What we know:
The protein has 3 helices and no strands. The chain has helices at 2-31, 40-66, 72-91. Helix 2 runs antiparallel to helix 3. The chain is elongated, with a radius of gyration of 24 Å. The protein starts with a helix and ends in a 21-residue tail after the last helix.
Amino acid sequence: xxxxxxxxxxxxxxxxxxxxxxxxxxxxxxxxxxxxxxxxxxxxxxxxxxxxxxxxxxxxxxxxxxxxxxxxxxxxxxxxxxxxxxxxxxxxxxxxxxxxxxxxxxxxxxxx
Length: 112
């Protein structure tokens, strides 16, 4: 009986350690993400678009402050966080997406 309990415990521990690794591998294969290296031109183009978006976000924050929706201090904190994210994206080569797609589309664009 002691031998059976030891065997069951060993099996349980093995499964507990292996299951998260197996689940991670499975989910990364489903995402279908491909590693891509952007050229300097592509990075510059994305950087330009992100800068335009960032300026529009700053304008929106300023309007919220002007209309009294948020305080000036809170507006400045939000802007600083946005600046930090933008700098990190530039440092990472513009590879991180600033949004998460909720579309459950196939590669050809059809929705499930």
